[in-house]
Amino acid sequence: MMKVREKVLHALIESDKFISGQQLSSELGVSRTSVWKAIKKLKEDGFNIESVNNKGYKMIKNPDGLVESLLIHDLTKRGFELVRLFDTIDSTNLEAKRQADSFGGKGLFISKEQTHGKGRRGRTWESPKASGNYMSYLLRPEIEPKDASMLTLLAGLAVCNAMIDLYEINVRIKWPNDIVINGKKLCGILTELSSEIDYVNYVIVGIGINVFQKQFPKEIEKIGTSLALEVDETKFKVTKHELILKITDYMNVYLLKFDQYKDLSFIKEEYEKQCVNVSGELRIESNKASYVGVGRGITSRGQLLVENSQGQVSEVNSGEVSVRGIYGYV
Ligand code: BTN
After folding, report:
1. Which of 42, 61, 80 is the last residue of a domain?
2. What is the pTM of this model?
3. Residue 114 CA, ligand 1 centroid: distance in Å
4. Same domain flag for 193 and 268
5. Strand extents, DSSP E, 31-154
6. Is the CB of 114 under 6 A from ligand 1?
7. Tens digits of per-residue pLDDT, 217-248?
8. Each residue's pLDDT tens digit, 123-173
9. Which domain holds residue 232?
10. Do 146 and 205 belong together in one domain?
11. Which residue's C-alpha comes closest to atom 7 of ligand 1?
């Protein structure tokens, strides 16, 4: 049974307007005194609730809808012991790394802006204020270092499924870890590892999602898109808070399974269904070779299976190559 405090909290989160004590009391089926006590407790716990005579109560949210106390509240319940929201930071991956040495548990670091957002292969990830969702999970899986790259695929599927559930959009995965829609990139994932030869200290899974951008710089306008441009806003309201929770719920389910299986066999089929380059022609570009092949699925360890023109199938590792579709971005 949900406590009065939680019921009041949810009612306030869901409303953009003031709600009177009377309304809360009748909608939630509790006394006015319990509502008043719950509000007092929530304020003591750090929730920023405005009270105005004759109007009632309203939760103060910042423009992109993220409130640190709310995130802490909802993510602690989901097993993340250290949760932080920053107005600005160099990179949430870097912050996760800084925290990892002094704090031994699982964490989630979110920022409204990054001044040195990191992309894969040393690239930068443009992270302007109020447009994207930038977050990094600090995870402590009991795996061997060679298995860590599988977490990227797992996170990709979590993001993909969260977006399908919330907004019914046709998002797909570009192996190993981009989320794309109609040939344009919506999200990128950067997984970083701290390990000894045979022991993982921690893994950081950094996720960058284009959320509110309505326009992109010229260089990336043909290859980048955002939820604001893709989601039917007459049907769905995009909020970063809800998106973060949904992704985290999928992450938790998959991480639990991953801990049992130690590979991706439990999501292989689903991943292949969502992945744009497990079938059809693609180009492999590594420093060893560059060739055109045909995607034939993934292995249970997350490698891409590629058949060359002689009919030989090889396993391609994500770290070694970049895969380009023959036509366009995907
Ligand atoms: C890519 O190149 O596609 C990966 C981009 C990953 C960006 C995210 S944003 C949150 C986290 N912090 C970073 O500095 N990078 C990742």
Report:
1. 61
2. 0.88
3. 10
4. yes
5. 49-52, 56-59, 82-86, 107-111, 132-139
6. yes
7. 888 888 999 999 999 989 998 989 999 999 99
8. 999 899 889 999 999 999 999 999 999 999 999 999 999 999 999 999 999
9. 68-273
10. yes
11. 208
